[in-house]
Structures are given as C-alpha cells and as structure tokens.
Design goal:
With 324 residues, the protein is α/β, with parallel strands linked by helices. Helix content is 43%, strand content 22%. The chain has 13 helices and 12 strands. The strands form 3 sheets. Strands 4-3-5-12-6 form a 5-stranded mixed beta sheet, with helices on both faces. Strands 9-8-10-7-11 form a 5-stranded mixed beta sheet, with helices on one face. Strand 8, helix 9 and strand 9 form a beta-alpha-beta unit. Helix 1 packs across helix 4 (61-88) and helix 6 (109-118) runs antiparallel to helix 11. The longest helix has 28 residues, at 61-88. The relative contact order is 0.13.
C-alpha cells in the first residue's frame, strides 16, 4: 500500500469518480491512476469502486470506509508537513479561507490587510460559497478555515469557535413610509414586500423565526446571497431590504436609510471553524486572533484539547462576545 494510491482514490472520489479530471488535477496520467487503484484493490482483496466497463460507477461499501480512512491519513501527512514548515520557516506558507460574501466584503478586509502586511510570504486564498459548501470545504481539507454564521454545526469533524455577534437592519429609500414609523415593528415590516438573504445564508433563520413567533408570514419576494445585490433591488423599488447591519456602507449607501432592527430579531453569531486534528501554524493562530481578539493562543489551545462540542461551549459560556 502506497500513500500515492490513497491520494488517488481520495481525489477520484472528490472528482465525481472522473479519473480523467483527477489526472488533470494531479498532473499525472489517467492510465497510471487506474493502474494504481487496481493494484490497491488487488492488495486489499476488495473493490473500492464498482465499474461498468472502464468507467467507475459508484463507491462500494468497503470503498466508503477505505476512502474515509485515506482522507484521515492524508490529513495527518499534511499536518506532518505543516510541523516541518513551522520549524523550518514559520512565516512562509499558504492559508485558505472559505466564507460568505458578507464576511468577505465587510468583516474580513481590514483583518486580511493587516495580516498580509505582517506575513507577506503567506499566500492567502479566499473561497466564497453557501454555508454548507463552506463547511464541506473545511471538513474535507480544501480550506484551512471556514467563517460563517449558519450551516456548520452539522459537520461533527469541525471545531467551531464564536467570533462576534451581529444583528440586522432594514434598508429603504429615503422617501419610504417606514422612515416615518416611530418604532419599527414586525407588523409594519410584514405590510411590505421584503428583499433579503437566501434561506441558510447570513442568519436568515433568525429572521424567519421572529416572524413565525408572532404568526406573521413575511412577503419575501426576492432573495440573494449578496447584500449588495439586495440593496440594488431595494433601490429599484422591489421591496424593503433586510440585511446584516455590517453590510450598510455610510458612503456608498447614502441614498438609502438604514433602520435599526436589532430589537426585532435575535442576534446571530459568526464562527470560525477548522477540522479536528488540524495543526495550527503560527500565522494561522495569528489570523484567528486578529479576526477575533478573544480567541488568543491560550483559548485556541483549550478549544483544541476539548473532547466535545459541549466542552467547547462551556469554555465560551461566560465570555461576552464583541458586537459587530
């Protein structure tokens, strides 16, 4: 059994059983990958992939377990490399982050700017996606960190740490009737068409819960993952926008009025996560602390040593999170 063979079956499974695409991704030949997979199957005495002719059709039951264990082995090998890099040159490397548009556009720029000034020889790669996609990328090792508000709790292999609390505001044109309401209410909001986030994005569940609790059905007529897109359609008169408070730019959004809605919705918590067993290089720990200063090296160490989600939650039970 060779490490290369484990990498081949792992990558083939991630590429939709497409050996040709895997060969291109790994800069090798398709026949070479197929041969090594067959050699591994012969050695183990089981089929990892079912076949129809020359094509792989599905992963077998044995293959699912073997591929899962292969992923764990490959991640441990990557950690060994990381340890070596840390002690040979702790300021050189790569850092990959998966996050949502709101985080990338509004919460991360100043953090990334200061980080890159401190670590000019660290290549930083950012991926955007849905919260579920973000969590999947962290869980399978595509990225080092996942930063999002929703959709990550279902991935048990991720260590999650709370970064900050935030809430929502309502954005409307300057002549909108809601600008004259003494105090914004859910009943007042429900009278107008609403433009907001796609379900599963940026704390959308808190919005739906608030309306459900007072037996109101919001008229959500347009959804998007991007707060800037939402504001664009508010400007077109499509409806009332509900976005994260951080997504309102005082300079660029001068034509809109932002109405505080924090009293209407429960606050949401943005978290940063990484897969269990990850070796945090010095610059990785530094990035976490820059993004959330209360997550210093000591706290990170305690979180990594925690044996369950309950233990991690206990660590943060008495910590007052910053409000964005």
């Amino acid at each position: 059994m060779k490490l290369q063979q484990l990498r081949y079956i792992w990558e083939v499974s991630r590429n939709g059983l497409n050996v040709s695409a895997t060969a291109q991704a790994l800069y090798t030949s398709q026949p070479g990958i197929s041969k090594q997979i067959r050699l591994l199957e012969d050695e183990l005495g089981v089929e990892i992939f079912a076949r129809s002719g020359k094509h792989l059709t599905r992963v077998t039951a044995a293959g699912e377990r073997i591929i899962k264990m292969s992923g764990e082995i490959l991640r441990k090998c990557e950690n060994i490399k990381q340890v070596g890099q840390e002690f040979s040159n702790e300021r050189v490397g790569t850092l990959s982050i998966a996050t949502t548009h709101t985080q990338a556009r509004y919460a991360l720029p100043t953090v990334i700017s200061s980080f890159m000034q401190e670590y000019p020889d660290v290549a930083l790669h950012m991926h955007q996606g849905t919260p579920t996609q973000i969590a999947e990328m962290a869980a399978d090792g595509t990225v080092d960190f996942a930063i999002a508000t929703e959709g990550m709790e279902q991935f048990g292999d991720l260590i999650m740490m709370p970064c900050y609390r935030w809430n929502r505001c309502v954005v409307v044109p300057k002549d909108h009737p809601l600008t004259t309401v003494p105090k914004l209410t859910l009943q007042a909001l429900a009278e107008f068409p609403i433009v907001t986030y796609v379900f599963g994005f940026t704390g959308r569940s808190k919005l739906d819960e608030a309306f459900n609790q007072v037996d109101l059905e919001p008229k959500v007529i347009f959804t998007a993952a991007d707060a800037d897109v939402i504001k664009t359609y508010v400007r077109l008169g499509l409806g009332v926008g509900i976005v994260a408070g951080m997504a309102v730019d005082e300079l660029q959004d001068q034509d809109l009025v932002a109405l505080d809605a924090s009293h209407l919705f429960e606050s949401s918590v943005t978290k940063i996560g990484f897969r269990r067993g990850t070796f945090l290089r010095g610059f990785m720990s530094d990035f976490i602390e820059r993004f959330a200063p209360h997550l210093d090296r000591e706290v990170q160490g305690k979180v990594i040593q925690a044996r369950s989600k309950d233990e991690i939650e206990e660590l943060f039970k008495n910590i007052e999170l910053p409000v964005y």
